[in-house]
Every structure is written in structure tokens, then in C-alpha cells.
Amino acid sequence: MFDDQTHCAVVVGAQWGDEGKGKLVDVLAEQADFVVRYQGGANAGHTVVTGDSQFILRQIPSGILHPRATCVIGNGVVVDPVTLFSELDALTERGVATDGRMFVSNRAHLVLPFHKLLDAASEKSQGIGTTGKGIGPAYEDKIGRRGVRVGDLRDMGRVREFLEQRVARANRMLEMMHATERASLDEHVELLSGYAPRLNTLAADTGLLLHRALRAGKRILLEGAQGSLLDLDHGTYPFVTSSSTTAGGAAVGAGIGPTSIDGVLGVVKAYTTRVGNGPLPSAADPADDERLRKEGGEFGAVTGRPRRCGWFDATVVRYAVRVNGLTGLAVTKLDVLDEFERIPVCVGYELDGRQCEEFPDEVEQLERVKPIYEVLDGWRAPTTEARRLDDLPSAARAYLTRLEALAETPIRYVSVGTRRDQIIAVR
Ligand code: IMP
């Protein structure tokens, strides 16, 4: 990914999340000086396997597992201090040194306990299928200009005043939503007073830090969370998350100019999954759905919910190529398809009797589309030991060639297992 031309690259999910970005970021972080999360919060669940250990990172960039990388939580992230510090402590316990390698933007907003209560209450009427981590309500407060930012913790007296108003407001809203629980001011004050000293030591003007790094020729990897189809603007609204998951969000959420970014890698599974509510046009029939979920271990890393499974959807990925300006693709979990006899690929949609070239902008239309499938031969052989494209069975190579042609974007990486070494870098 990084070379003489590429110093600042974004990795985004090009489907509905859970594409295996954690693994890709972990592999690419080896060449990076900085790894930056730029949106989302503890709703992410990036699974990274190193040797015999498995780490699930929700809030901390996956690059933390590489001792050389400095990790940044950018201004576009909503920070849950409880998750952040429990993750940091767990990493320390498992021998990962984090001191002096983690910075959190002063401008990042905090996710507070009342955001989680509001998330749960609004789920009852909206039914988005959120992760329950308070993400939507925290971004609502940010947009509504009433959020609490990391930098505010420098003055706990002021934070207490903020909290009085914010907790009272949250309780009024909970009452309106007929929720039984109420937020406690004391709990909020205690929580933030407890975390403030630790958070203050990590807090920095991270945009400036990254600007200086770029000027010094350092390599920066911007790690997206969730997927393009969950983007607040470009996703399957309202069944989306509340941040800009697409590559444009990387500049805003990291605090650097868009001209600094010189590569955008889209991560796609060799098939498709979705967790939470909303349409999945290429959903497999119940038997294949079950088989994909079992072979792929398709259960949410944050919530444990079973993911709905389906076939590779080229209309979705072409759309993601467009809205992100993808310069390459990484195809993950190819090995999950190893035993399938025939592999359908959704090459387009039919909508109300007509072929539909572009991804619909209305969720109601997306619910009505009929996928058009092309069925490719399976390879019925293990791919997990392949380290070069030539090591793959010819039907697996043909499958990848077809995906590349349909997506109109070159494949740069193919992942064939959870371990770091199970990856093919395509020259
Ligand atoms: P929220 O981000 O918790 O508000 O959830 C909004 C939608 O995004 C729900 O459909 C979630 O299931 C989905 N979502 C949020 N984070 C992830 C993720 O990391 N992977 C997959 N889906 C996610």
C-alpha cells in the first residue's frame, strides 16, 4: 500500500462493515508510522489475530499491536472512556506497551452513560438494530452543539456545569420516550472526574500532530470503522450508523486536508454480510446463509449477534468504489468459500421489471430489487496456505478476476485466513 507515491492511505469497509478491516490494518500498520481512527466509536469491533492471541479492538486503532506505530483517535471519533481505558489496561496486561504511543484528539466528543440510555430508548421506536453503544445520541449532541469534548476535561468545574444541563436534558428526553431508566448526575461527575487525569495525558491537538508527521514524510494509515453502506449520507438510510464511514470522512475526522490522502483501499469480503436491520439484496437462501455464517464465524464482534449472510454484490461494491474513490480492493475471507460447489455473484439488480444500473438511493427501492446472479464454479480445495495468486486453485483465481472486473478496481490483497501471514499481496 505504501510506496514512494503513497504516504497517507485510508482503509475503508466497502460493504456493511465486518469486512476484515482490522486484519488489513494490522498487516499494513507494519509499514506505517501513525495509525488513526477517524470516525465511529466503540460500535466497531476490529478482530486481530497475532500468533496464538486474538484481540478485539473497539476504540483503539488496530495499529497498537505494532510497537513502531503511534496510534491516534481523531476528532471525528466519539470516545467512550470506559471502553478506551479497559482496552488500554487489557493490552498492557497482555504485554502490549501503549505508553507514549496513544493520542486522543482534544476535539473528539465523549460518549456518556446517558447516550447509551437514549440509544436503547430510541431503538424501541426506531428499530435500526444499533449496537447500543450510544453512538447515535453522542453524534446528535455533537451536531446539536451541546457535546462534551475530550479537551473540556481540563476544567472539571466547567464540565460539572455542562453535565448538570446535559443530564437533565437527557432525563427529559427519556421521560418523553417513556423509558423507565434515568441518568444520574453523580454517576456522570464521578465517571469523568475519575477518567479526566488519564484522558488529559493522552489528549492532544492530533490534527497538528498528523500535519507535522506528514511534513516530515511519515506514513499515515487512516483506519475506517463500519462500512460504506452504513455511512450516514451514502448508506442505506435510515439503517446506517451516525458517522461518515466513507473515505471523505477520513480527512474531516483526522483533521488533515483531503489533498494529503493518496490512496484508498476498500476492504470487501468474498461474500456479503450485514448485522442490524435494513435490506440485504444478495441474501443467501436459509441453508447457504447458515453455512456461510458457520464457515465464516459470522457473529458480531461487539454484540455477538448473528450476521445475515449473502453473496458478493457487485452493485454494492461498484457504488462503494464511486463514493470512496477506491484505488484498490482487498478481498478477505476467500477461504470461507473453499468448500462451496457453486458460488453465485450478484452482478446487478432488477427493479420493477427493469434493470437497475446504479445503487438505489431509497431503502424502499432497495427492499424491492431482485438480484441478478451469475453462478461461478467453486474450487473445492483449501486456499489457506496460498501466499501468491499462483498458489490458488484456477477456479479461485477466476472468481477473483470476475470480482475485479465487476468492481472495475484492481485487487491489491487477498486474505485467506485470520492470521497475519495468511495474506496475498498482489503485485
Ligand atoms: P450504531 O452504529 O450502533 O448506531 O448502529 C447503527 C447500525 O450500524 C446498526 O445496523 C449496526 O448493526 C451497524 N453497525 C455499527 N457498527 C458496526 C460494525 O462495526 N460492524 C457492522 N455493523 C455495524
Contiguous low-pLDDT stretches (5 residues minimum) are none
Structural class assignment: alpha/beta
The side-by-side strand order for the widest beta sheet comes to 9-7-5-2-10-1-11-15-19-20
Tally of helical runs: 12
The end-to-end span amounts to 10 Å
Average of per-residue pLDDT values: 95
In total, how many beta strands? 20
Range of helix content = 25-40%
Radius of gyration from the CA trace? 21 Å
Which cofactor or ligand species appear? Answer: inosinic acid
Largest sheet: 10 strands, mixed
* Overall spatial form: globular
Strand content: 15-25%
How is this fold's topology laid out?
Layout (H helix, E strand, L loop, with lengths): L7 E6 L7 H9 L4 E4 L8 E5 L2 E5 L12 E4 L4 E2 L1 H13 L8 E4 L3 E2 L2 H14 L8 H9 L12 H21 L8 H18 E2 L1 H10 L4 E4 L24 H7 L8 E7 L2 E3 L11 H11 L11 E3 L1 E2 H11 L3 E5 L9 E10 L2 E3 L6 H6 L1 E8 L16 H14 L3 E5 L7 E3 L2
Parallel strand pairs: 1-10, 1-11, 2-5, 2-10, 5-7, 6-8, 7-9, 11-15, 14-16, 15-19
Antiparallel strand pairs: 3-4, 12-13, 16-17, 16-18, 19-20
Helix pairs in contact: 3-4, 3-5, 5-6
Describe this structure in words.
The protein has 427 residues and is an alpha/beta fold. The chain has helices spanning 21-29, 81-93, 113-126, 135-143, 156-176, 185-202, 206-215, 248-254, 286-296, 314-324, 363-368, 394-407, and strands at 8-13, 34-37, 46-50, 53-57, 70-73, 78-79, 102-105, 109-110, 203-204, 220-223, 263-269, 272-274, 308-310, 312-313, 328-332, 342-351, 354-356, 370-377, 411-415, 423-425. The strands form five sheets. The protein has a ten-stranded mixed beta sheet with strand order 9-7-5-2-10-1-11-15-19-20, with helices on both faces. Strands 14, 16, 17 and 18 form a four-stranded mixed beta sheet that branches. A two-stranded antiparallel sheet has the order 3-4. Inosinic acid binds at residues 17-18, 43-45, 128-131, 133, 135-136, 225-226, 230, 239, 241-242, 275-276.
